[in-house]
Amino acid sequence: MNSPSRILVVEDESIVAFNLQQRLAQLGYDVPAIAVSGEECMEMVSQTLPDLVLMDIHIQGDMDGIEVASRLRETHSTPVIYLTAYSEDSTLERARQTRPYGYLLKPFSERELHATIQMAFERYKLEVELVDNRQLLQQALDAASMGVLEMNTATSAITASPRTADLLGWSPNQPHCRDDLLSCVDAEERAEVTARLDESLAKLKRFSEEFRVLSEDVPPRWIKLDAGHASGRRMTGVVQDISARKNSELRLKLLNDSLESLVAERTIELKQCLKELEAFSYSVAHDLRSPVRVIVGFGQELIREHASELGADSIDLVNRIVTAGQRMGALIDALLHMSRLNQLPMQLRVVNVSEIASEIAAQLMEAAPERVAQVRIAPNLEAMADPTLVRSLLDNLLRNAWKFSARKEITHIDVGSKTLNGETIFFVRDNGCGFDMASADRLFGPFQRLHREDEYAGTGIGLTIVQRIVMRHGGRVWAFSEPGLGAAFHFTLST
Ligand SMILES: Nc1ncnc2c1ncn2[C@@H]1O[C@H](COP(=O)(O)OP(=O)(O)OP(=O)(O)O)[C@@H](O)[C@H]1O
Ligand SMILES: [Mg+2]
């Protein structure tokens, strides 16, 4: 059970005091002491720390009850109820200024006394909660370095907390108004901030703005003001300094801008270099073609026309020269083909991938009618892409699938697509010899081959072409395989 509330009685008439003590005891209160003068009251409050003081106004000593109550307000926060027989206006006014918790005119009934005490305790409890909440709010605002700003929207008068005044460069405790606030805003942004404030006031909308504050007394800083309309006549908000964030955003933006222009510069340089390199390799490849053709041609002629004069060993050597020359010729042709594809301007349109794949597959099967093959191509595969490049891409993938499954009794090739996270992924899958995934990173490099030339012929340029085509479309290409079980090549064309 709660211990009874303790009430200090200040009354200089002993009979009245005794009677009051009895009545309070009957009501369940504890009266730890009775004081007859102001001095005694101050001393007893310090000693007994009562929950409430019942104060007669006319008491012994130099101070009357009202003076004692106003002293008490300064030293203790103990609530005071006046008990008096006097009700003149001047006394009432003096008493009012001490913000009493009640004013009971003698004689009063038990019920009146009890109700007044109860009300006083209730009000006191609420006031303590209010003070606690204010403290909590202030601590939160201090921790966030925030200030408070309140504007009377009828008069435009602004009340600013010390932190707000500090942030805006205002002297504390000076009256301010809406125009003072707007004149702090950087001239460049003032018109916009004024318009937003007007709109917020007209529509009672939240106001949330970040702006630069320029004032004679503070260095330029960035402020964020968030305010809402507590009632039609009051706009209340918090002010915070966001300079650190704004400055790092600015630094980041400057850094990004300079990085972007650096990247753009380098890209132009690189593109130029690449173009020169392409042109150089094209002309080298092109110029190499005829001497290689001459070597192969004369070699073949030597065997054809002079076989009888050459011994078997010499014929074997010349044959090797011819084969190597032919291979070199094939490599040069592949390089030239790749160069040409790279230089073609892209022409994007809806491409029927299924149709192109079917045409290529038909050619492959026609060229090797002895092979048993099942080629399944999903219908209606479409892509927004360059048709010539897509044909070359599919040609290389299907040719590979066909070539590397040549030793299987029955060749199975599938062409299809699937959608993953909204992205269309095409695939070409075969049941051929496959490759070791440990070497997968070499697949797309020029002249990289994972199989021996005498097993599967080729120059090693096909997948390089595939990768370049995919990259020109902004897509990706990758592969999965298991030796002996086949390979699957996936690609996207995301343009
Ligand atoms: N479907 C596949 N199955 C197994 N290995 C493959 C497959 N596709 C490519 N490879 C491996 O990747 C290598 C590179 O392929 P790429 O198409 O670039 O060259 P290539 O087919 O050998 O020659 P080219 O295409 O220039 O005539 C191949 O030599 C082969 O080792
Ligand atoms: Mg190939």
Note down, in words, how this protein is organized:
The protein has helices spanning 14-26, 38-48, 65-75, 89-97, 110-143, 162-168, 178-184, 187-203, 243-306, 312-343, 353-367, 387-403, 462-472, and strands at 7-10, 34-35, 52-56, 80-84, 102-105, 146-152, 157-160, 176-177, 207-213, 221-231, 234-241, 349-352, 372-377, 382-385, 410-420, 423-430, 477-482, 486-491. Helix 1 (14-26) links the parallel strand 1 and strand 2. Helix 9 (243-306) runs antiparallel to helix 10. By secondary structure, it is an alpha/beta fold. It folds into four domains: 7-140, Rossmann fold; 144-241, 2-Layer Sandwich (Beta-Lactamase); 254-342, Signal transduction histidine kinase, dimerisation/phosphotransfer (DHp) domain (Helix Hairpins, Orthogonal Bundle), CATH 1.10.287.130; 345-491, Histidine kinase-like ATPase, C-terminal domain (Heat Shock Protein 90, 2-Layer Sandwich). A six-stranded antiparallel beta sheet has the order 8-7-6-11-10-9, sandwiched between helices. A five-stranded parallel beta sheet has the order 2-1-3-4-5, with helices on both faces. The chain has 13 helices and 18 strands. The mean pLDDT is 92. The chain binds adenosine-5'-triphosphate and magnesium ion. Magnesium ion binds next to helix 12. Residues 283-495 form the Histidine kinase domain. InterPro entries: BphY/WalK/GraS-like, CheY-like_superfamily, HATPase_C_sf, HATPase_dom, His_kinase_dom, HisK_dim/P_dom, HisK_dim/P_sf, PAS. Pfam families: HATPase_c, HisKA, Response_reg. Its EC number is 2.7.13.3.
